[in-house]
């Protein structure tokens, strides 16, 4: 006993709380659909099938005509992130309550240390913020914003002792979080060493800095400057570079929040060449576009500022959805990092000061259903794959999460595919006063949401309690990610060529690295002369030569030039 007062619940109420039958629905997993009932006890799925035998006193949720799917996993959120001088307004309470309202039962947030700060301390700080507040389950990724050996050791400690299996490196945010290529390589090496997944925010921060200065000089200070300073190719270049660097190390890589067709195509090319890389896009990129940066209302335009930015191209959202369907992209997050109008106004005269971030945690499932399933681009199984299952596999929590099956956590959304709602900041649960999907009519509503076997959303009403959710440790060496790394390394290992040693003459270098020429080997060409090491049977016209500046025969062999 821990000394806390434990309130006894009468046995008949215990049954009602702990036993639940979802009846008459169509169960959807990433690989199959079946008409089946789902019986839950103590937060775990105990039976899936028809004509189930269930104990008396079991609560029944009628799901006829509904789809019964794994609760969503949002792979990318920033609740209450301290950022750009302020804090994201949705905290771990309002943010996770809103997640539940929309059918998401788990979020993955980021503990981000400042440059020079301990990663482990940052991790504990985030835990202390999240644990008392979360209404749904959560996991953490940890940021690597600087590099030294101690950072590497802390990554190991986080992996071995604190349930962290992914680390995020930023290729943007110069002068704060950005890593250069050397430090990226070091962090990739360490990720591989400890069996963690390397994640990157892929944008070229140096180019952004250059472009920003030019735009401000030109008097472009509004939110459109944000998008203009970081065009698609800036995202695509970093995506490609990250893939090349990770592939050189043989480290599995995950590209966060892919926002453009160019970046997605760079990733796709690498996947087809065999690079171990996975891609995430976000609800914002699937549901809206960058034309909003050109809206005459400053507040509206600033409300859409996030990084990488939305693209001013109306075909991007549907292209990204198609890439989720074909498997070039695998997961969907939101990058939920919300700032209200008065916070965004920090950048009213300078777009670089607009806090970056948008909403999405509440609406992700509906937006993807509307733009993906209702539009006929993906089927319900693929919807499940990209909203939960693929994330659970990549981050090594499958099939505990991301599947409706015996033994899995009872994190379930009972989805009404026919009902509609209109998204609005006036009616959403999130704390932020703006919604990038304002006015969008979506089919697909989470009629019931079950989290750990508890009904937390019931016909639109959310009954969530602070601290109800749990931290979910993510074990290292995810088989989905690391399953072929060892064999791949062996198969691709460089092979030495066995050959007889060279036994001809070798030129001598003096201690300044200059050539000590052999008189007989000096060949004049105009005013410059080249020494060549004589070699038996040498017919090659392309022998490497060393340029020297001295007259032929001017110095005796053995002296220095
Ligand atoms: O705009 C964004 N994405 N804000 C949050 C910080 C980040 O880059 O993830
Ligand atoms: Zn982010």
UniProtKB/TrEMBL annotation:
PTM comment text: Carbamylation allows a single lysine to coordinate two divalent metal cations.
UniProt enzyme class: hydrolase
A Pfam family reported for this protein in Swiss-Prot or TrEMBL: Amidohydro_1
Keyword terms: Hydrolase, Metal-binding, Zinc
GO MF terms, alphabetically ordered: dihydropyrimidinase activity; metal ion binding
Modified residues (N6-carboxylysine): 168
InterPro entries documented for this protein: Amidohydro-rel, Hydantoinase/dihydroPyrase, Metal-dep_hydrolase_composite, Metal_Hydrolase, Metallo-dep_Hydrolases_sf
Gene3D superfamilies (UniProt xref): Metal-dependent hydrolases (3.20.20.140), Urease, subunit C, domain 1 (2.30.40.10)
NCBIfam families reported for this sequence: D-hydantoinase (TIGR02033)
Quaternary structure and partners: Homotetramer.
Name of this chain's protein: dihydropyrimidinase
